[in-house]
């Protein structure tokens, strides 16, 4: 592993590492924010999954999350959104291939070899984090858009693994919207039964653990009606008796201006759950 | 004028405008953050001058300043760093020409026609702001690196115009460092007497108003020894009896991670002065 960046920030350090991922078959970059408390002992970790087109840079430069992580003594881990490199398959368009891993394990070619972001986020990345930074093993997960889909599905599929989960503007029902249908068809094939394993709106019906879902959604989000459709998850949660706090924030769009405005509340929520 | 961006942020709006600048002979973009208090009446304005290579985007996306501006009810105005457009002269390198206006009025060709950032920041931009957004006419000024140089020199040259001034990692003595010498020779010619009009370390000796200077400087800043040299301003302030609070922040570099860590304190400082 290699440390690419090391920058003082709010009394701690915003680092970026490159490490070998066996699961993905490539090198991966990951942002790690160490709060000042990490100098004195292990801290809990909030994993942040970014959205389409992002790398680890978007969250670490734009969300303003370090301030709150420093206040609460939380490590922030922000990985890249897909495998990378010349050997990794890609596609035209921003919503498939590099930058668009959708946090699943692909089963179809040419994707199956590298596109295993689900296993990377659930297993390999936490193992790497807990071996290499002062992480306590207490975890929470959050994300934005495609990364909100990742956070919700990963938390729902792994009871006991995360103390809390939240999302900003998540793709809650990928099987029912164009972004998800394009990606799932390519990565998983046409059998829609298979898709259910990566669809939060399907997963809440069978969730073994009633981990409360916290979601903020901008009311002026340009993708709200066609790609995000939080009402589908809301209905599924009501039917399943799954706790959901869905907050519609009038006027806010899909950008990091929205995330930065509410990330403080999410970090406080995760800090409380991880205490 | 044209509004290019309009994004909800911390209860207010992060806007970006394009407007015609007569002084610069081109269109200019400028970021304007309106805090929630601006809905109810005029607010004081903090002008932010960015550094080499920046546009209005760097500060508005990376500094995390909107949170504090919303708390204190301050408008943030972040202009671009130079004239722009096909008719505007440029040069090889990041430290001359576009993105490197140095907040002065150029007198040499090919720069003199468009490179008049001093007049733009001192006169035309505030006039535009006060005519087009709910600004009270109470002003403060801050900036980073080349923009810290701009903030210090403009405040020192215009007594009574700003309630307060601060800077992050400013170029305090451009006449004595490579960045400044290259730019001043090109924009102003070889006569070093002329340079003194745009050099904070020279200007403090004759400042009519003893406006206190607040400066944060990262101790691990890669430009500290060769380009920034705050000790030169410190000595000049001591000789002139000019109030200066120079804070060396160990470990911090020249990036927006540094700015974001301390911008809250600067905004509180300006808010107090503008109250």
Q: Which features characterize this protein?
A:
homodimer; 275 residues; alpha/beta; Rossmann fold; 6-stranded mixed β-sheet; 3-stranded parallel β-sheet; 10 helices; globular
SSE string of chain A, helix = H, strand = E? EEEEHHEHEHEHHHEHHEH
Distance N to C terminus of chain A:
30 Å
Q: Unreliable segments of chain A (pLDDT under 50, ≥5 consecutive)?
A: none
Please give the CATH class of chain A.
Alpha Beta
Helical segment count of chain A: 10
Oligomer status:
homodimer
Beta-strand fraction estimate of chain A: 15-25%
CATH architecture of chain A: 3-Layer(aba) Sandwich
The strands making up the biggest β-sheet of chain A line up spatially as 1-2-3-5-4-6
In total, how many domains does the architecture of chain A comprise? 1
User: Radius of gyration of chain A over alpha carbons?
Assistant: 17 Å
Report the largest inter-chain contact: A-B, 24 and 24 residues
Biggest sheet features of chain A: 6 strands, mixed
Percentage of helical residues of chain A?
25-40%
CATH superfamily of chain A: Alpha/Beta hydrolase fold, catalytic domain
């Amino acid at each position: 592993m290699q440390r690419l960046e090391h920058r003082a920030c709010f009394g701690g350090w915003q680092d970026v590492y490159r490490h070998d991922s066996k699961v993905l078959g490539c090198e991966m970059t990951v942002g790690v924010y160490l709060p000042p408390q990490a100098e004195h002992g292990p801290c809990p970790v909030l994993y942040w999954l970014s959205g389409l087109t992002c790398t680890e840079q978007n969250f670490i430069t734009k969300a303003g999350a370090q301030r709150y992580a420093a206040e609460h003594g939380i490590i922030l881990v922000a990985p890249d959104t897909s495998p990378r490199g010349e050997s990794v398959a890609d596609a035209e368009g921003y919503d498939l291939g590099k930058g668009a891993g959708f946090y699943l394990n692909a089963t179809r070619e040419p994707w199956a070899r590298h596109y295993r972001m689900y296993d990377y986020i659930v297993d390999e990345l936490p193992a790497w984090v807990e071996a290499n930074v002062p992480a306590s093993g207490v975890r929470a997960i959050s994300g934005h858009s495609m990364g909100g889909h990742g956070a919700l599905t990963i938390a729902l599929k792994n009871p006991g693994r995360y103390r809390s989960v939240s999302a900003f503007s998540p793709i809650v029902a990928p099987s029912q919207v164009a972004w998800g249908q394009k990606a799932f068809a390519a990565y998983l094939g046409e059998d829609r039964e298979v898709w259910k394993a990566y669809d939060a709106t399907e997963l809440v019906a069978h969730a073994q653990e009633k981990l409360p879902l916290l979601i903020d959604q901008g009311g002026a989000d340009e993708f709200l009606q066609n790609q995000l459709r939080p009402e589908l998850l809301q209905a599924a949660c009501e039917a399943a008796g799954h706790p959901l706090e869905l907050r519609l924030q009038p006027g806010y769009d899909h950008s990091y201006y929205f995330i930065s405005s509410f990330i403080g509340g999410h970090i406080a929520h995760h800090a409380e759950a991880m205490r």
